[in-house]
Amino acid sequence: MSLATITIIGVVVVGVLFWLFVRTRSKDLIDEMMVKRRPSSRLVSRADFVEGPTHIPVALSLGSDTICYENSDLDACLELGRIEEIEYDDETATGQSVTGKALRLRAHGQTFEFVLDPAVARQWESTLAAKHFDQGTARAV
User: Fold this and answer.
1) Cβ(93)–Cβ(9) under 8 Å?
2) CA angle, 130 as apex, 42 and 64 as ends, to 5°?
Protein backbone atom coordinates (compact mmCIF):
# COMPACT_ATOMS: atom_id res chain seq x y z
CA MET A 1 0.00 0.00 0.00
CA SER A 2 1.14 3.47 -0.76
CA LEU A 3 1.49 6.29 1.73
CA ALA A 4 -1.41 8.17 0.10
CA THR A 5 -3.76 5.19 0.54
CA ILE A 6 -2.79 4.74 4.18
CA THR A 7 -3.28 8.48 4.78
CA ILE A 8 -6.76 8.42 3.21
CA ILE A 9 -7.77 5.37 5.28
CA GLY A 10 -6.43 7.08 8.42
CA VAL A 11 -8.40 10.26 7.73
CA VAL A 12 -11.60 8.26 7.16
CA VAL A 13 -11.09 6.28 10.39
CA VAL A 14 -10.45 9.46 12.40
CA GLY A 15 -13.59 11.05 10.87
CA VAL A 16 -15.74 8.04 11.80
CA LEU A 17 -14.33 7.97 15.34
CA PHE A 18 -14.98 11.70 15.75
CA TRP A 19 -18.57 11.29 14.50
CA LEU A 20 -19.15 8.41 16.97
CA PHE A 21 -17.69 10.49 19.82
CA VAL A 22 -19.90 13.50 19.07
CA ARG A 23 -23.00 11.32 18.76
CA THR A 24 -22.30 9.48 22.03
CA ARG A 25 -21.50 12.71 23.88
CA SER A 26 -24.72 14.28 22.62
CA LYS A 27 -26.73 11.36 24.03
CA ASP A 28 -24.88 11.69 27.35
CA LEU A 29 -25.71 15.41 27.55
CA ILE A 30 -29.39 14.74 26.86
CA ASP A 31 -29.39 12.06 29.57
CA GLU A 32 -27.88 14.59 32.01
CA MET A 33 -30.60 17.12 31.15
CA MET A 34 -33.29 14.47 31.66
CA VAL A 35 -31.90 13.60 35.10
CA LYS A 36 -31.84 17.31 36.01
CA ARG A 37 -35.49 17.80 34.96
CA ARG A 38 -36.94 14.60 36.49
CA PRO A 39 -37.47 15.87 40.08
CA SER A 40 -39.54 18.87 38.98
CA SER A 41 -41.42 17.26 36.06
CA ARG A 42 -44.41 15.01 35.61
CA LEU A 43 -42.85 13.36 32.56
CA VAL A 44 -39.39 13.45 30.97
CA SER A 45 -38.30 11.67 27.79
CA ARG A 46 -36.16 11.83 24.70
CA ALA A 47 -37.72 13.28 21.58
CA ASP A 48 -36.76 14.75 18.25
CA PHE A 49 -37.69 18.40 17.77
CA VAL A 50 -38.80 18.78 14.14
CA GLU A 51 -37.48 21.89 12.43
CA GLY A 52 -38.37 21.59 8.74
CA PRO A 53 -36.74 18.41 7.44
CA THR A 54 -34.31 18.30 10.38
CA HIS A 55 -34.90 16.22 13.51
CA ILE A 56 -32.97 17.56 16.50
CA PRO A 57 -32.58 15.23 19.53
CA VAL A 58 -33.82 16.90 22.74
CA ALA A 59 -34.82 16.16 26.31
CA LEU A 60 -38.57 16.86 26.48
CA SER A 61 -40.14 17.50 29.89
CA LEU A 62 -43.62 18.28 31.12
CA GLY A 63 -43.68 20.44 34.23
CA SER A 64 -46.70 21.67 36.16
CA ASP A 65 -47.18 24.64 33.83
CA THR A 66 -44.57 24.29 31.04
CA ILE A 67 -43.23 21.96 28.39
CA CYS A 68 -39.47 22.32 28.00
CA TYR A 69 -37.18 20.98 25.31
CA GLU A 70 -33.43 21.23 25.45
CA ASN A 71 -30.09 19.93 24.29
CA SER A 72 -26.59 21.36 24.34
CA ASP A 73 -27.55 24.05 21.77
CA LEU A 74 -31.20 24.65 22.62
CA ASP A 75 -33.09 25.53 25.81
CA ALA A 76 -36.74 26.52 25.39
CA CYS A 77 -40.04 26.24 27.27
CA LEU A 78 -43.67 26.75 26.31
CA GLU A 79 -46.28 27.72 28.88
CA LEU A 80 -49.14 25.21 28.93
CA GLY A 81 -51.68 28.02 29.33
CA ARG A 82 -50.57 29.52 26.02
CA ILE A 83 -50.78 26.29 24.02
CA GLU A 84 -53.90 26.42 21.88
CA GLU A 85 -53.85 22.91 20.43
CA ILE A 86 -52.24 19.59 21.32
CA GLU A 87 -52.29 16.78 18.75
CA TYR A 88 -50.77 13.34 18.37
CA ASP A 89 -50.35 12.09 14.81
CA ASP A 90 -48.63 9.39 12.73
CA GLU A 91 -46.97 12.00 10.55
CA THR A 92 -45.50 15.47 10.85
CA ALA A 93 -47.34 18.57 9.67
CA THR A 94 -45.32 18.39 6.44
CA GLY A 95 -46.51 14.83 5.77
CA GLN A 96 -43.41 12.88 6.82
CA SER A 97 -44.45 9.56 8.36
CA VAL A 98 -42.83 8.83 11.71
CA THR A 99 -42.10 5.78 13.78
CA GLY A 100 -44.05 6.38 16.95
CA LYS A 101 -46.04 9.59 17.18
CA ALA A 102 -45.61 13.23 16.40
CA LEU A 103 -46.62 15.50 19.27
CA ARG A 104 -47.81 18.74 17.70
CA LEU A 105 -48.31 21.89 19.77
CA ARG A 106 -49.76 25.13 18.43
CA ALA A 107 -49.27 28.42 20.21
CA HIS A 108 -49.66 31.94 18.82
CA GLY A 109 -49.96 30.65 15.25
CA GLN A 110 -46.70 28.73 15.50
CA THR A 111 -46.37 24.94 15.39
CA PHE A 112 -43.90 22.97 17.51
CA GLU A 113 -43.47 19.29 16.70
CA PHE A 114 -41.71 16.48 18.52
CA VAL A 115 -41.30 12.88 17.38
CA LEU A 116 -41.72 10.39 20.23
CA ASP A 117 -40.98 6.66 20.41
CA PRO A 118 -44.18 4.52 20.50
CA ALA A 119 -43.99 3.59 24.22
CA VAL A 120 -43.06 7.15 25.22
CA ALA A 121 -45.87 8.53 23.05
CA ARG A 122 -48.44 6.49 25.01
CA GLN A 123 -47.12 7.99 28.26
CA TRP A 124 -47.36 11.51 26.84
CA GLU A 125 -50.90 10.91 25.52
CA SER A 126 -52.08 9.69 28.91
CA THR A 127 -50.38 12.55 30.78
CA LEU A 128 -50.99 15.43 28.34
CA ALA A 129 -54.35 14.95 26.64
CA ALA A 130 -54.95 16.15 23.11
CA LYS A 131 -57.01 19.31 22.81
CA HIS A 132 -58.40 21.19 19.83
CA PHE A 133 -60.15 24.49 19.39
CA ASP A 134 -63.66 24.16 18.08
CA GLN A 135 -65.40 27.43 17.21
CA GLY A 136 -63.40 29.45 19.71
CA THR A 137 -63.66 27.05 22.64
CA ALA A 138 -61.24 24.34 23.62
CA ARG A 139 -62.38 20.75 23.71
CA ALA A 140 -60.45 17.72 24.89
CA VAL A 141 -60.11 14.87 22.43
Assistant:
1) no
2) 25
